[in-house]
Prior knowledge:
5 helices
Amino acid sequence: MNESLSEQKLNQLYWLMRLSMTFIWLWTAITSWYFYPHEESLGWLRQVGLIDHATFWLASACLFDLFMGIASAFFASKKLWQIQFAFIVFYTLAIIIYLPEFLFHPFGPITKNITVLACLVFLISMGKR
């Protein structure tokens, strides 16, 4: 009985993490496109080196985030979690290199990625499809 209770708790935790990832990706897509000032986001993209067609890159990033949110909700797989993990590591490294001021931002927009990565490690280890 203890084993099945543990499995049930792990399954609940899996769904909590999966829904959390869905929320993060969807919220980021929506707020980045509709609520956050585009000029500030475009400035950051230019600092990272995406000078040409920055609006295209912003729109692409928002669509990518939207796709990741939908995929997290409806098409979850170990491969999806691995792709998200790699993307977040790449994104975090790019920001550390080109926008290091975010490392010391009081709301920790980059340092919170450590928790997101830990969540993804859990999802990967669960191996659910």
